[in-house]
Every structure is written in structure tokens, then in C-alpha cells.
Amino acid sequence: MDTIIGNMFAIGGNVKVPSYGNTKYEPLDIIYETHREAQLIAQSIGQAFQVAYMEFLKANGIEDPGLLKEMDYQDVLNQQEIYGEELNLFANKDHHKEVIVPKAKNELLGVVIVESGWGSMVPTVVLANMSPIGPAARCGQLNIGDQIISINGISLVGLPLSACQTYIKAAKNQTVVKLTVVPCPPVVEVIIKRPDVKYQLGFSVQNGVICSLLRGGIAERGGVRVGHRIIEINNQSVVAVPHEKIVSLLANSVGEIHMKTMPTSIFRLLTGQDTPHYL
Q1: How far is CA 16 from CA 3, 19, 30, in A?
Q2: What residues in the chain have per-residue pLDDT under 70?
Q3: PDZ domain: which residues (predicted)?
Q4: 81, 82, 77: which is closest to 195 by C-alpha?
């Protein structure tokens, strides 16, 4: 993760270090204390994004040298602010909600959780469904779309979905479960700024589902998440729209492109396409 705060510029990453029989990664954080250093590093990152963008174009059959020379993706990227303010949402405890869920011993919590989607600034799990007779629904304080930050004091932020499911299952023997959540609607608002159709959006879609995303591009900054189902494009519902029509709408959209999306798992549960398996 790369962050500029005032004149402090932080770079976070992973360092591969040897381990016995397994690959191990250690966190790496570098702090630059001068504005000049921050500018140089930010410029280098921007250039790396542009190289990745050109490779993305080539991989999708766009190899016109004149077109590539004409584009300056970094300028477009600079105009695309990060939409959603996820870091502020999760870092500010004023947005957090403590929920106490009373339950019987050996009773399931009665929830379905899904991943927030690759591309999220702060990956966590989302409450996708609740059993109408389960403890989670009975407590009356949880809603579909809420992002679960912790359970019984154990942080779930950044953990794989399977690990989060294990922690929730482990609460079966308890009579009280404490959850920390960030209340969020199940539908995610996306705004992408695209000045011209010659600039690729930087994500691919199949039957309304976002299946790949250019890391660091305008789509990711605008709130696009892999694994989400597109619900609306510029106030037009695309729930029952054919794939070709969705592609055409996206390909020809310029200016501010407004979309509404939600995790595909939530969409399928809400529309009755999948049967919930409660934890």
C-alpha cells in the first residue's frame, strides 16, 4: 500500500524471506520524509501504472503505436480520485458499531459471509445473508452489506474467507458473541472518470460480473471490485441485460461513469439463485 500524508510518504509491501519448506513473507514499510522524495516515488509508481496499462492494451489486441503514443494514462489517472474512502471508513472508529449477539449454546450464529472483492483498499468480509430465526437476525442490529471487522476481539481484516468462516464457526459453543462491524449498504457506488473512449476502463466483465481489474487504474480507484455484479450503469438497470449490451454501454461511456455493483454472492442469494448455508 502506498500513502502520502502531508510530507510523509509510506510504501508498504512484502519481502520474500527463506523458510523451511514454505514461502514466507514479511511486511516491509518505507517512510520518505521529504516532499521531493515523495514526488519522485509517486511519479515512478505512476509510470509503472502506465507501463502496466500499455501491457493490458496489448494483451487485449490494441497495438496501434500511434494510439499508444497519443495516450497519457498518467494524466487520466491523476484526475481519478480514490472513491469510497475505505481507509477513512475503517480507520475512524466513529464509523464502527459494536454488536452483542445473545445466543444459545451450540446454536449457529445464522449468517452467510462473502469476500468484499479483490481491489478493496481494506479487504474484509461482508454479511451476505441471515437466517430469519437465527441469533444474528434476532438481535436486530445487523444488516446485509455490513462489513465485519472483528469477532470476539479477533480482527478479520485482511484474512482469507475460510479463516473468517472458521472464527465464526468457533463461536457456536458461546452464549454471547461480540461483533464489530462497519454499517454499509450491500450496493457499492462506483464513479469512473474517463475523458475519451480511447482510454480503456481497465477491467473486464462477463455476463455482468467483473472478472479482472487493472491494479492501480482508474476503475480500481473509482471503486470497481473483482467478483462484483454490475446492477446499474448510468442509472440504467443491467440486471437482465445481455452481455453484449453491457459491454457496449461500458465501451461507449465517457465523462463520469456511474455504476452500482454488489458482490455476486450477495446478488445470487438475494435473487434466490443460490441457497444460503448458514454459519
Answers
A1: 22, 9, 16
A2: 1-74, 78, 80-91, 118-122
A3: 98-183, 189-265
A4: 77
Per-residue confidence (pLDDT) for residue 14, from 0 to 100: 40
Phi, psi of 214 (to 5 degrees): -75, 115
Q: Which of 115, 161, 114, 86 is nearest to 276 (CA)?
A: 114
pLDDT digits 0-9 by tens, 178-195:
999 999 888 989 999 988
**Backbone angles phi and psi of 6, in degrees to 5:** 60, -125
How does DSSP classify residue 226?
A: B
Residues 6+ apart with CB under 8 A from 119: 213, 215, 220, 224, 225, 226
Contact 17, 26 (CB under 8 A): yes
Instruction: Provide the residue ranges of all domains of the chain, joining segments of one domain with +.
Output: 1-70, 89-186
Distance in angstroms (rounded) separating the CA atoms of residues 233 and 5: 33
The CATH number of the structural domain formed by 89-186 is 2.30.42.10
Q: What global pTM score does this model have? A: 0.68
Q: What is the pairing mode between strands 188-194 and 203-206?
A: unpaired
Whole-number Å distance between alpha carbons of 271 and 149? 26
